[in-house]
């Protein structure tokens, strides 16, 4: 899978590249609008992550260019502005997703993962992780070929874990993935633990291995 | 008190004594004049009478006449050189009243005989005259007063019109619409001065406001990028497997604090946006659906605290709010109702056609009125996940969109009510 990251902030760009490369993607990057446009025209990417505010141009114009090239690449717009208009405009132009800075790298990764799954196999991709098989089209999860029944939250959790396998995922990243950012207005996200516990239990009951490692005080690592 | 009322009142206060003094002065003058005239007539009469008495010398009679108008009787008193004028009241038999008379009395001598001569003239007609004159004068004065008042009022109103127009404009000013304000030219120098000052002042204010707005937005946006960088670096650092547990915990703490900072920044930006009314009212929105959405989103929190939710939602209740603001309103109020509740507590949601009431049980004391909607005023320091901006945002929203927000605390129940105008 080949990704292009168009982001002018070098340190942030490096972080994104580092995280995504560790997850097994082949990543290229562009520093500004012009470079981004050139790369988009020249090469084929599976997914493109573009900042809206770029030197020499607007990230939304790259979305336009991609659409005029009839590219099949997935597009994620990232922006420091939490402006509804930008978001709507980006999605209207054909972007697949929109992320506001600052974001969890694990969240960006999960979204890229979801887009790639939808794009490349028309949503019929099958996700495998050792003895675990996920069939997104029917939201079915098999462990050792035995179907296990998960709640919506548990299913989302599992997908997030598999996307960010072998990485430490923080509780706050999990909470905002499962419930959105508005969740902090109501208080703690300690009871994510309940969902994790249930997920772990169901997988163990199907004779799966316990992949969910608790990283003390920090979060969880899958696999 | 209106300026016009005030000037009219002052005018009246000044005019009243002046007019009264004028009336008094005129009355006195007329009175004196009339007395003077009457006295002259009396002297004239006296001369005629004396001349007449002197000529009726045949038989040397002694005169003794007594009528109301003319009185003569012999006396022994010494001769007076000057006549004495007085005003007396004489009984009038036919009318059974006393009538005022001007009287001349003098002791004179007619052929060596001393007489006291009294001549009187009725003042009644002259009195009426004075009365009439005073009536007319009062009427004229009154008329003048009314005329002066009315014309003063009318003129003032016309003169002050540009002022009131400018005042109206200022009252209807909204910061975000300041650019369109033009104070028109008037024929009055002072008002032109005022209006040109106002124009330049509003222009300056608008510029300041724009700068301020830009600064807030830019600052907030610019802050997000460094936050994103720091957060991403920490997230990467967390992946390092050689870290000790303590190091990992410290990184996580910094990571969480960064997120708090980012949320704080986001909330402050939101406050500024609401204040600037950057959330235009779109189509009316059914609030019941929003409430239901958040009840579902907070489902687990509610279950965890074993809260009882009593809700009565009017499905047709429509609110003229931007969807993002409706979300904010409900998530903040409902979020607080959950956050500050105790285990096994209650939340009551009442949505009527034009009002929303959210009440919850809580062990916390009533929020002091002066701190209720203040930024960064937290109820308890233990709630570190609160940024102290939730109610400030709700309040700002209410203020900016003409909703009324009231807070009531009875027993252990905190109640917030939002009403449409």
Brief account:
The complex is a heterodimer of chains A (223) and B (421). Chain A is α/β, with parallel strands linked by helices.
Cα(first) to Cα(last) distance of chain A is: 21 Å
* Mean pLDDT value of chain A: 87
The overall strand count of chain A is 14
Determine the strand fraction of chain B and express it as a percent band. 15-25%
Going across the biggest sheet of chain B, name each strand in turn. 1-2-5-4-3
Largest sheet of chain B: 5 strands, antiparallel
Portion of residues within helices of chain A: 40-55%
Distance between the termini of chain B: 29 Å
- Element pattern of chain B in H and E: HEEEEEHHHEHHEEHEEHEE
Number of strands of chain B: 12
Question: What's the overall geometry of chain B?
Answer: rod-shaped
Major interchain interface with per-chain residue totals: A-B, 41 and 46 residues
By helix and strand content of chain A, what is the structural category? Answer: alpha/beta
Give helix % range of chain B. 40-55%
